[in-house]
Amino acid sequence: MAEIKVMSAGAVKSVVSALGAEFERDTGNKLNFNFGTAGSLRERIKDGETADIVVLSESAIAELAKLGLVVADSIVDVGRTVTGVVIREGGPVPDISTPEAFKRAFLDARSVAYTDPKAGGSGGIMFAALLEKLGIADAINKKAVLGKSGHDVTTSIAEGRAEIGTTFISEVLPVKGARVVGPLPGDLHIANTYTAAIHAQAIAPAGAEFFLRKLTDPATRPRWIAAGLEPAFPDR
Length: 236
Hints:
Blueprint: E1 3-9, H1 13-27, E2 30-36, H2 38-46, E3 53-57, H3 58-66, E4 76-88, H4 99-108, E5 112-115, H5 122-134, H6 137-141, E6 144-147, H7 150-158, E7 164-168, H8 169-172, E8 178-183, E9 191-198, H9 205-215, H10 221-226, E10 230-231
């Protein structure tokens, strides 16, 4: 039986971990999980770190493919997630029904949590760009509570260290004490596709391919949906 090294973005951690546990039980193989932001894992791979299977943002996988660091024929989209507004469970629910209402809610909040773009998280990078687009980056950054990941962001809100925030909905659902108000409204909507591939220097390529088939088995589609992700692979 093989040990299969998996490098995966945090946005898909809950479902990749759950399906991984089943895979280990059913096959006897061992999965060595390495979770982090898509950007940080991409850089680790570019710097020479190897894995067997890599699950990152679509753009990160595309970049690695151009560099010959993943097997092009193995690339497959696994899930899409959207950015949502997060508050502490039981707290007042802000109006985010329109882009203007969303903007006002974040300007009125005492503190705002989101992933530090410098940490390489896709959600934080896209949200920072949105703040610039709305012209409120300076105002929000003065009261920002930055996290290293979407899980950190959600935890800071659940524990009361931040009043409101944004991250991918799939990263909120596993955290007790946090509530998703809803996705960003209208043309502020942010979605991201996550993609898997086998590393070009995989030590256990057969095991990686086997786990990749597990992740994209049509029977797992309800599991992806329950985790706050839209399956991006065929249903049959």
